[in-house]
Fold:
Amino acid sequence: MTSERITIAVAAMGGDNAPGEIVVGALATAAELEVGVRLYGREEEVLAHVPGGVVPDGVVVVDCREVVAMDDEPAAAVRRMKDASVVRCAQAVRDGEAAAMISAGNTGAAMAAALLRIGRIPGIARPAIAVPVPVPGHHPQVLIDAGATVDAAPEWLVQFARMGRVYAKARWDIDAPTIGLLSNGEEEGKGDQLRKTVFDLLRKEAGFVGNVEGSDLMQPGRADVFVTDGFTGNVALKSIESALRSLATIVFTTLESTDEAREASKVVLPLLLGAAEAYDPDLTGGAVLLGVKGVCVISHGSSMAPAVVSAARVAIECVRAGVVQQLRETVTDAG
Amino acid sequence: MPAETHVERGPLGPDDVLAMIRERLAEILEIDEDGITREASFADDLGADSLALIELVEVLEEDIGERTVGFSFDDEDLAELLTVGDAVDYVMARLAANG
Structure:
């Protein structure tokens, strides 16, 4: 644990609402969380969103000219665009100018930048994206991998499980996080060949509780860490997000459907909106790329300013909890 | 960090380059060097994705660049490198072109 002032590198040019919302969020991060912020992007475009064009104390704008587009091939783009904001952020972490980086742009590019510029933790075969999945009245579950490594070998999923456990413990102070293997049935023997092989490997892992199903996500009790390959994890995550959006649409449409419903909504709506904050991706914080030698938080593509602040909170927690060091010690020592 | 197997500073030969690639690829893919043969396909035999290949390219540029200033891979050529042997031959050709 450390109380030293932390500096966060923010990629200003990444995301559907960049640079405006990202800049506003970065300024709010510096003001609200009392951290230093290095904001990487085209200077004139960044400054256009800084009130009065005057950069406040604690914020440094670093001019960089290239932008990785959402449809660029990530690894090639990172190699080619050495002056892209996401690449410069990763270099800042590597060079010790920042303790963590945040990007809301091309997820693959953030991952490639982190991997190629910050580097992998020795012994970890592939990085994985850990996403907190909200659970009503309970601490979040960790879904890992949510999209970093689409084609995964069985041994890599074991490392994902260990990384997810370290992360769950560090973020939510869970003494002994439980691990579930996401499959198509809870009984042993369910799943495709990958799942069956991983099940056998996970038997020896501390905290392993067996298979879990998609229906166990967002439900307390079954497991703290849901382990899967990046393909399945991404599909699961997007399905949850879409279902939540549809549910919200149903509720709000119903509350507008009759005079009585509109009257009732005057009481119910503020309560619902308050409760919904726990499921708002702008407020729940970003996904963390685990397995690289620095803290890299990936915020969703449509991030607004509050999402940047939330992602910064996650980054600060990870830095203060020493997640990277714990991963080095725990995951690689476990063999 | 230079590859530890190459402490001497003579000209690189194909065997040196193969050894360098095997060592670096084993580190990147967290696999045993023994499985990395000249004939091995990056994707089909070794499970190397595009990110792993670019990691390899960048680390080779760094290693070889310490001995041959300006050595680099041309991004346009990367798609042609399908096997370990392709990469060895490519490095040797680039070294020869550099004089």
